[in-house]
Automatic annotation (TrEMBL):
It comes from Arthrobacter globiformis (strain ATCC 8010 / DSM 20124 / JCM 1332 / NBRC 12137 / NCIMB 8907 / NRRL B-2979 / 168). It is an enzyme of class 4 (lyase). This is Prephenate dehydratase. GO terms for biological process: L-phenylalanine biosynthetic process. One of its GO terms (cellular component) is cytoplasm. The keyword rRNA-binding does not apply. The record marks 181 as: Essential for prephenate dehydratase activity. Residues 7-188 form the Prephenate dehydratase domain. The lineage of its organism: Bacteria, Bacillati, Actinomycetota, Actinomycetes, Micrococcales.
Length: 326
């Protein structure tokens, strides 16, 4: 029986880096793809069932975390990350035909793109004014509107290639040629992606208040079980000044005993801890697992404790008899 066609949404319009990330998903090219105007709108489409999954940016190697995504998945109806994708980032500066570099005064793009091209802009268009755009592609397409209030946009090369009314004023304008953005595919809670051996687990941990050393205790849950962290970011909860949650990526799958044990520890320290998913790493790199934190070591340890409890369940007389002071 042919499987039903999935509906994906992404930070649009067509031509964003997020769309490039979505097209890495094997069935995305043949599926229905609905552009969303911002990260929240994309995630809400998943929450209300009008999309099966949303591709959204989560972090960039130069500019760091995408706060709109970090905050939106940390609160509200629960969601799950089921996949990640990496996209190398390269930017072009585009304008309408006939506009020269020397005429550019106002540039629009996504905030993360602007941050990655700051040095280039300072050098080549000193004093240029930044006009925030909802995405790189939206900024580029906005140039074609009659009432466009900026003269150029920073976007992906594909937008210029597919839009003849735009022309490229400069290529490779990113300050860091090796820039990469990481994207996540987010779905409603359901079937957990299978363990691949090279996985990542994402959690959101509210920092318990008035508890000295709480952050240390949280980190300790991972450290003592040999679980490496690849990202940790603090974000304000928005409730009041000084109240934070931590967004954490850990190596491994909740199906790995060491990760499950670490999550149980987190829950004891911070009961509102939110599990956001276990999913295969885009780079397929398996972590180095210390011997004493392998599944086998956990099984042996649990069996040992079980044995003790079974022995002791013979009754208090056994304990009294065994006591040297008797
Ligand atoms: O505007 C886009 O094209 C996006 O996909 C968003 C986004 C981001 O949020 O970081 C993605 C990659 C680039 O780093 C710049 C912008």
């Amino acid at each position: 029986m042919p499987s039903a066609r999935r509906t994906y949404t992404f930070l649009g319009p067509e031509g964003t880096f997020t769309e490039a990330a979505l097209l890495q998903v094997p069935d995305a090219a043949e599926s229905l793809r609905i552009p969303s105007s911002n990260v929240n709108a994309a995630l809400d489409r998943v929450r209300d069932g009008s999309a099966d999954a949303a591709m959204v940016p989560i972090e960039n190697s130069v500019e760091g975390g995408v706060t709109a995504t970090l905050d939106s998945i940390a609160t509200g109806q629960e969601l799950r990350i089921i996949r990640e994708a990496l996209v190398p980032i390269s930017f072009v500066l585009v304008a309408r035909a006939g506009v020269e570099l020397s005429q550019i005064r106002r540039i629009s793009t996504h905030g993360h793109a602007w941050a990655q091209c700051r040095l280039w802009v300072d050098e080549h268009i000193p004093g240029a004014e930044y006009i925030p755009g909802s995405s790189t592609a939206a900024a580029a397409m906005g140039l074609l509107e009659d009432d466009a209030h900026y003269d150029a946009a920073i976007c992906a090369p594909i937008v210029a290639a597919e839009q003849p009314a735009l022309h490229v004023l400069a290529e490779n304008i990113g300050d860091n040629p090796g820039a990469v953005t990481r994207f996540i595919l987010v779905s409603r809670p359901g079937i957990l992606p299978a363990r691949t051996g090279a996985d990542k687990t994402t959690v959101v941990v509210p920092l318990p208040e008035d508890r000295p050393g709480a952050l240390m205790e949280i980190l300790d849950q991972f450290a003592t079980r040999g679980v490496n962290l690849s990202r940790i970011e603090s974000r304000p909860t928005g409730q009041y000044l000084g109240h934070y949650f931590f967004s954490i990526d850990a190596d491994g799958h909740v199906g790995d005993a060491r990760v499950a044990d670490a999550l149980a520890g987190l829950h004891r320290i911070s009961p509102a801890t939110r599990f956001l998913g276990s999913y295969g790493r885009a780079d397929a790199q398996a972590p180095v697992v210390p011997e004493h934190t392998s599944d086998e070591a956990f099984q042996a340890a649990h069996a040992w404790v079980k044995g003790i409890l079974a022995g002791d369940s013979l009754g208090p007389e056994t304990l009294v008899e065994a006591s040297p002071s008797a």
